[in-house]
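Exercise 7. Predict the structure of Isoprenyl transferase from Anoxybacteroides rupiense.
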Amino acid sequence: MFNKIWKHKEQSNFSIEYTKENILQQPVPEHVAIIMDGNGRWAKKRALPRAAGHYEGMQVVRKITRFANELGIKVLTLYAFSTENWKRPKSEVDYLMKLPEQFLTTFLPELIEENVTVRVIGDCNQLPEHTQTAVKKAVEDTKHNTGLILNFALNYGSRAEITHAVKEIAKQVQQGHLSAEQIDEEVVASYLMTRNLKDPDLLIRTSGEIRLSNFMLWQLAYTEFWFTDVLWPDFTEQHLLEAIAEFQKRGRRFGGI
Ligand code: FPP
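Solution. The predicted structure, encoded as tokens:
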């Protein structure tokens, strides 16, 4: 046992071994959002094609979803494909577009068994037909589940989301259903794709990049951020516990004192 913990520390630089039991003694974040970054570098380090990193990343999505559900986290939002990711080579985009289908086809029965609800934010209309079909089926088949909400951000960009919301609100004003004075933060939030979700409590970004990359800019206003150098395919349950332990130490004041 000692040996196992020591080895683990050596590999990932932890000074403390967190356990689920410790973490559950204090409130866990209700909504965790993750920018899953570093798949390409993980593959490169192993002289593998980038697709191998994305494939491994998909396995980690399954592992972390299961664990988040066990911890009682209510919403897990995962940035799987951004509006900017279309700029990648076609072969990589094609592969990334196959992953939701592959993930959902492989794991949907387990997700249903674990009472997980699948949801999506982002412009799904621009996704290939086969991706849309898989996503729609998963959303439909899990819509009555009451456990963790697994919320994929697919073809998601925060500026596009806010721009769309502004246009919709402008139309309401133009048609006389809403006055400019009535537009408050609640109204704006109600036109975002996250309208039925509470804002994230904790944002995790892997791979050492310290930026938001057009992710949930409105929703992250008061979120606690946790960055790690760990590449997404190397991300483990222990890293999630570490992020939550750090979250539990932070004093959230939401602008108050
Ligand atoms: C960023 O790493 C990662 C992505 C753009 C894709 C994320 C997708 C997954 C983790 C798998 C998705 C799984 C499902 C179920 C949809 P990068 O490629 O930018 O890595 P790099 O910065 O090291 O090149």
